[in-house]
Specification:
Shape of chain A: elongated
Largest sheet of chain B: none
Number of helices of chain A: 15
Helix content of chain B: over 70%
Largest interface: A-B, 86 and 90 residues
Distance between the termini of chain A: 70 Å
Oligomer: heterodimer
Order of helices and strands of chain A: HHHHHHHHHHHHEEHHH
Distance between the termini of chain B: 16 Å
Number of domains of chain A: 2
Radius of gyration of chain A: 22 Å
Structural class of chain B: mainly alpha
Structural class of chain A: mainly alpha
Strand content of chain B: under 5%
Strand order of the largest sheet of chain A: 1-2
Number of strands of chain A: 2
Chain lengths: ~375, ~500
């Protein structure tokens, strides 16, 4: 080859081509997304997150959680993520617009945790920011999800406490979200929180879930599972599903805090194998402090059992970083419906119910079967 | 062909080279001594550190409680530390060292502005050191392949700018009209890297893009780093070393041109296939998969070109360490590309995405292809800088076989483990823990492969240390892997 000019131009040109094509164009296409809201401008999702969330994300980055945990649910036609109970719909670009860094992840030596916050029992989820919940990692935020869900006008708002957990338009959506409690799925859930959910919850869902109030809810129907629950026999469908699908996450030990509650997350971070003997996760004890109990046991102290329990007169308490990390985890929740992320069987619930029935595992997955 | 029938040439002297040319080369080599050795020595130190970290990371992955209670030894910090030490410490520094030497040789002029390079090596080391300390202390940015905190990234960028400006300056002093193939690749690498690094840093940290695009930019950066930086240096090196050692011109200049431009055009469009089925517009991922398929064009042309150049000279690999490593690297380029294509096809990615298979892919690229080629180059270059020959043929052989078996075993283990893990994950009747248990035996196998690689690197470091201390052989004949046969061969000639 002779002459430098063509060489330089070519080197520059090929690179610029790739840069424009793979970063500039996508940025133009999906780089300026806004949160979605309904016609009245309420029910905004996603929302900016709290300071604790941000700091928790930094702890997550610092300790390399991303090298084992992904945070993306693939569509049901592409993979079995939804069947595994990792979410009720595929992840969409809009889910991540307030996240920096974004931890999509490339490896699953651990579970996908895009929706780990949504799995928390209802009373745990309300303090943490739920799906569309506002910047409330602080316990005081509990009021806002309710405030948000109220104006939706959807019937089921008051149907169960779970309405607080994520301001979703119908209980059907709730059911498909992997929250073990506060949804019709609780029938098969062993979590103590199940008690918190009124028995009326499953019963109330068919009327509410059947006719979607607007196009938004229709599109939003997150998965066949939602429809399955909306059928009159919803509860039974759920329990049969629970049998066919293996428990998507570790089997819970007796005496532990409710699964996926904040307290559980702390115990799990401190001693993963005390919760699931087969876990391959390293312990993150350096995020916790062991100290002598001064006057009374701290409210934050971990409820540890067995060999992990501190000696008499001592307690293990989370550092601020650990609290932020857990606040971050508790806020990971993509169960809020998105217009653009229909699941494959995403027909409106009413029409979709018969067709959706054959795929019950997703419905079963919310229940951490014992 | 009978191995002993091939005339063995003294590699540094091509048949036509006259005494003046030989002297000129010696001058040029001598002028590169300080900067190249600085880069090489630092690279070796990082290689050893990275290897130790790698072993630690590998064992911790199947023994999670191993030293997990100390914050800076936790797996999630050791892993990026290992990766960044290898990528920016070992591979980049060894690559730059090689590229400097090749540039001086191919511009046929003594190295100008050595101080630029010395300063660059210093800054580079400082940047990597700060970056790794930052990661270990919990300052990682959380973007894969760009974990270095900004204070380290800036220093690296300064160091890099020095190297690139040196390359451009050096190019202006070149003699002769012809620009050899290797120089295209090197010039490409030198110019692509700063743009790439700057684009990545700007779009992630200075004016960050929104949401998932950060991941897109991250993988665009990582893949282009692999192809346009490491890949380009390794291919350029192979284009120099193979013809040089066997004393025969490259088979086809036209093939080389096609190979280079198709490589630049298509490989730079890959990256998004790593995000297959993720929350992105489908066209991005499809474009990258298509680009992956099109990279078969450079693979075929480059592979064919090297093969035809080597045709009839393969038995020389019995003797020349450089040739053995370089040909291994060049062949791995094909394997690396084919595996990369396979795991990015949607039907396969469905299973192997999110498994160890992607680690296998990275190791194929960075180790089997790049590192092995650079090892080969170092076996060629270091004696010319020091004026001594490698001391022990046996150590070179051990190094080669431990590396070759180590990386082969590691790739197989990770690929097999990845495919099985992926198949399990796609079977929702299995609990997640069971899918992890499936892969654990393969991770233990990987640790075994890691031990082999550790042995190989320590051997090489020891040998390199001997050379640095001037304990190499004084001889006019390079160290052949099978010296007795080699002597017979050249004696017979």
């Amino acid at each position: 080859m002779k002459g430098l000019a063509p060489l330089f131009l070519g080197i520059f040109g090929t690179f610029a081509f790739s840069w424009v094509g793979l970063t500039v164009l996508p940025n133009w296409q999906i780089g300026h997304l806004n949160p979605q809201s309904d016609e009245e401008g309420t029910d905004i999702y996603p929302q900016p997150q709290s300071g604790m969330f941000e700091r928790g994300a930094r702890v997550y980055a610092a300790n390399g959680c991303i090298y084992c945990h992904s945070q993306q649910v693939r569509a049901d036609y592409a993979a079995d993520d939804i069947e595994r109970g990792w979410g009720n719909r595929r992840s969409a670009p809009r889910d991540y617009i307030f996240e920096r860094p974004v931890f999509l992840g490339k490896m699953r030596m651990g579970q996908d945790i895009a929706n780990i916050g949504a799995r928390a029992p209802a009373e745990q989820a309300s303090p943490a920011p739920g799906g569309g919940a506002p910047p409330a990692a602080s316990p005081s935020g509990g009021t806002s999800p309710a405030a948000l869900s109220a104006p939706q006008g959807a019937a089921p708002v008051a149907a169960s406490p779970a309405a607080k957990q994520s301001p979703s338009p119908s209980p059907a959506t709730q059911a498909a979200s992997p929250a073990p409690a506060g949804s019709p799925a609780t029938a098969s859930s062993p979590a103590p929180a199940a008690a918190a959910s009124p028995v009326t919850s499953p019963g109330s869902s068919p009327p509410a879930g059947a006719p979607p109030p607007g196009p938004k809810t229709g599109l939003a129907s997150p998965s066949p599972a939602a429809a399955a629950n909306a059928t009159p026999g919803g509860t039974t469908t759920v329990s049969s599903g629970a049998q066919s699908a293996g428990p998507p996450w570790p089997i819970q030990t007796i005496g532990e805090p409710p699964m996926y509650s904040a307290a559980w997350q702390h115990v799990h971070l401190y001693s993963p194998r005390s919760i699931n003997f087969d876990s391959n996760m390293p312990a993150y004890r350096f995020l916790y402090k062991k100290r002598r109990i001064a006057d009374a046991r701290s409210a934050d102290a971990l409820k540890l059992t067995g060999s992990d329990a501190p000696p008499e007169g001592w307690e293990v308490i989370p550092s601020y970083d650990a609290k932020c990390l857990v606040a971050y985890l508790m806020a990971l929740n993509q169960s809020h419906p998105l217009k653009e992320a229909k699941s494959a069987g995403g027909a409106p619930p009413a029409a979709g119910s018969p067709a959706a029935a054959p795929s019950p595992p997703a419905a079963g997955s919310p229940a951490p079967a014992k | 062909m009978n191995a002993t029938g091939i005339p063995l040439k003294e590699p540094s002297v091509s048949a036509a080279a006259g005494a003046t040319e030989q002297l000129e080369r010696a001058y040029i080599d001598a002028s590169t001594r300080v900067p190249v050795l600085m880069f090489y020595t630092s690279a070796m130190a990082w290689l050893i550190l990275g290897t130790l970290l790698a072993g630690f990371v590998s064992f911790k992955l199947h023994a999670p409680d191993l030293l997990s209670n100390i914050s800076f030894l936790t797996w999630g910090r050791m892993r990026p530390a290992h990766m960044n030490v290898m990528v920016y410490g070992w591979a980049s520094m060894a690559g730059i060292g090689t590229a400097i030497w090749l540039m001086a040789r191919l511009c046929r002029t003594v190295l100008r502005y050595p101080l630029l390079l010395v300063a660059a090596a210093g800054f580079w080391n400082l940047g990597v050191l700060l970056g790794v300390c930052g990661i270990v202390l919990g300052d990682s940015t959380g973007y894969q392949w760009l974990e270095f905190p900004s204070y380290a990234a800036i220093i690296l960028f300064v160091a890099y700018t020095l190297v690139a400006s040196w390359a451009v300056l050096m190019f202006r002093y070149r003699r002769g009209e012809q620009i050899y193939i290797t120089q295209w690749y090197l010039l490409g690498a030198f110019l692509w890297f700063p743009w790439l690094y700057a684009a990545g840093q700007l779009m992630l940290f200075v004016v960050p893009v929104q949401g998932v695009l950060q991941s897109a930019v991250g993988w665009w950066y990582a893949n282009n780093l692999l192809f346009l930086w490491f890949g380009a240096i390794a291919l350029g090196t192979a284009y120099y070393m193979i013809p040089k050692v066997i004393g025969r011109p490259v088979y086809s200049y036209h093939l080389a041109t096609i190979g280079f431009w198709s490589y630049a055009l298509f490989s730079s469009w890959t990256g998004m296939q790593r995000l297959v089925d993720g929350p992105f517009p489908a066209w991005m991922i499809t474009a990258s998969i298509a680009a992956m398929i099109l990279t078969m064009i450079p693979v075929a042309t480059v592979g064919l070109n090297h093969h035809m150049t080597m045709q009839g000279y393969f038995p020389l690999m019995r003797y020349s360490p450089t040739l053995r490593f370089t040909v291994f690297g060049a062949m791995s380029y094909t394997v690396f590309s084919v595996v990369g294509l396979l795991i990015s096809l949607r039907s396969v990615a469905r299973y192997v995405d999110f498994t160890q298979a992607s680690i296998a892919y990275s190791h194929l690229g960075l180790y089997a292809f790049f590192t092995m080629t650079i090892f080969g180059a170092m076996y060629y270059i270091v004696p010319r800088l020091i004026g001594r020959e490698w001391r022990y043929a046996s150590l070179i052989k051990l190094h080669f076989w431990a590396s070759a078996y180590g990386i082969g075993l590691m790739t197989l283990m990770l690929l097999a483990g990845g495919f099985l893990q992926g198949a399990d994950m796609e079977n929702p009747t299995l609990s997640f823990s069971e899918t992890v248990e499936t892969v654990l035996p393969y991770l233990r196998g990987r640790s075994l492969a890691g031990i082999l690689l550790t042995v190989s690197h320590f051997i090489f470091a020891y040998h390199f240390g001997l050379m640095l201390l001037g304990l190499g052989r004084t001889s006019t004949v390079p160290t052949f892997l099978n010296p007795v046969e080699a002597e017979e061969a050249s004696g017979g000639h």
